[in-house]
Design goal:
about 85% helix, about 475 residues, mainly alpha
Length: about 475
């Protein structure tokens, strides 16, 4: 066992694996809380309540990025510039985001009616949108602050505590106050506001001030970088947000809730893969600075290997898990869309790997092109097909949109930015495995009537896939045992 541990520590991917494992472990525990309590919410609330709740959350996430001018991402990038003072950098960014938030609150108050009409939310949620956006900005900064400094344990503990308290608070407010979407939203966001203020007082207190030593040209560069990177920060939220709000507008909150329930499991999947992508970025910055391009490619292949393993697990078993967890059978209607939604996020994972080069080259403005294409495609297809085919069409429009984004990002990296990104052929074996998983899942679901045999078949195939992906470690282990 010691030799195996020594071998794992010798891998170039070890640091990413270590911190990514902490992030993932924290994410798994936080999602475990969500999964365990999900039957409570499906029992107490209706699909329509889920629809309003998801539209609210997506609205807050989008506004959290736009209202803060995305400056927390500026901290993540410029933290690695050694000539900049970390104290001055954080102080400038936090102060600027707070000023931008106050200005946006005034504008939203002036145009309150128009805003509520656009997002199709009840008027009584307006004040809670403002509160939630404020806490969202604080948590965005806190997560970036922890990630940049490799404070993975601190980040993990806070994620777990935050999720536990918000779920417990929501359940209490639903049971003892209002048994609908209002109880859940108010319960969650009251505790998040308290936690956000604690973060400000205990972690960011030293960064609150009106002076710093950053040069004006440096401030302009940071501001330009952060604002120009808003499309990347919005990419995942906007595509999901557009789907949910258009379903809500065209088909009502009940259908939006059914789609959101299926989408929730795709979000769990992408949360795990995002944890490893996030943990891997400091290592990629380091390798590119050292001009070790082949090692960068090796790191990206290692990342995609994890994507394949996790996506296969979710494609095979997420829908079954969704049926078990929903105590209300009304929530099962959209679970057949799971493989399409997972495939969409596989495209998004690949897009994240390639768009890293926009981060490194500080040419994030080029992402506007790929994001604009995917957003336009998503909007147009949703506008055409959701009224005709209902919420199911949104899963396929999401898949097509992420596919367009990936293709555009890859072409821009190769032809415009001229980065030495890995060719798609570098991932062809992994893409073939994903195609096989989709085929096996379809055949097993439609042609094996016995549920036990169906799960056993998919389980056997999954074990074989894992053995293939990590065959080098398996072979070395077997040699040691011989």
């Amino acid at each position: 066992m010691k030799k195996i541990n020594a071998y794992i520590k010798s891998l170039s991917f070890y640091e990413t694996l270590k911190h990514g494992s902490v992030y993932t472990l924290a994410f798994v525990f936080t999602q475990l809380i969500s999964v365990i309590t999900l039957p409570i919410f499906t029992k107490l609330l209706l699909p329509a309540d889920f629809g309003i709740y998801e539209v609210f959350n997506n609205t807050v996430r989008v506004l959290g990025i736009v209202v803060s001018l995305n400056l927390f991402n500026g901290f993540y990038r410029f933290y690695f510039d050694e000539h900049l003072s970390k104290q001055d950098l954080m102080q400038y960014l936090l102060r600027t985001s707070c000023i931008a938030f106050v200005i946006c609150v005034v504008l939203m108050l002036v145009f309150q009616k128009q805003f509520i009409d656009v997002v199709s939310l009840p008027k009584n949620l307006f004040i809670w949108i403002l509160i939630a956006v404020f806490t969202n900005i604080i948590f965005n900064y806190f997560n970036t602050y922890n990630t940049a400094q490799h404070f993975s344990k601190q980040a993990g503990i806070w994620q777990f505590i935050t999720q536990l308290l918000r779920v417990l608070s929501a359940i209490l407010f639903i049971i003892f106050w209002k048994r609908n979407y209002v109880g859940r939203i108010v319960g969650e966001n009251l505790i998040l506001l308290v936690l956000g203020l604690i973060i400000l007082l205990f972690y960011f207190r030293k960064y609150i001030g009106f002076s710093d030593n950053l040069q004006p040209e440096t401030k302009r560069e940071i501001l330009k970088y952060s604002v120009s990177f808003i499309p990347i920060g919005l990419s995942g939220f906007v595509l999901g947000y557009l789907d949910t709000i258009m379903i809500n507008s065209f088909k009502g909150s009940n259908d939006a809730g059914l789609y959101s329930y299926a989408y929730k499991f795709a979000v769990i999947y992408t949360g795990i893969t995002t944890a490893f992508v996030t943990a891997n970025r400091p290592k990629l910055f380091e390798l590119l600075n050292q001009k070790k391009e082949e090692e960068v490619i090796a790191q990206m292949r290692s990342m995609f290997k994890l994507v394949v393993a996790l996506s296969a697990l979710f494609i095979f078993f997420a829908a079954d898990g969704g049926k078990i967890l929903a105590l209300n059978d009304a929530f099962n209607a959209g679970l057949h869309l799971m493989p399409i939604l997972i495939l969409s996020y596989i495209f998004n994972d690949l897009n994240e790997l390639y768009s890293f080069y926009f981060h490194y080259e500080k040419k994030v403005n080029y992402f506007y092109y790929s994001f604009a294409v995917s957003a336009i495609v998503n909007f147009v297809l949703n506008w055409i097909f959701i009224p005709k085919y209902g919420y199911a069409a949104a899963a396929y429009t999401t898949l097509i949109s992420y596919g367009f984004m990936l293709v555009c990002t890859y072409i821009i990296c190769k032809k415009i930015v001229l980065s030495r990104v890995p060719a798609v052929i570098r991932f062809v074996d992994y893409l073939a495995i994903i195609a096989l998983v989709l085929l096996v899942n379809y055949l097993a679901t439609h042609y094996i009537g016995n549920i036990v045999l169906q799960i056993a078949t998919k389980g056997l195939i999954y074990i074989l896939i894992l053995a293939y992906l990590w065959r080098n470690i398996l072979q070395q282990f077997l040699r040691k045992q011989a």
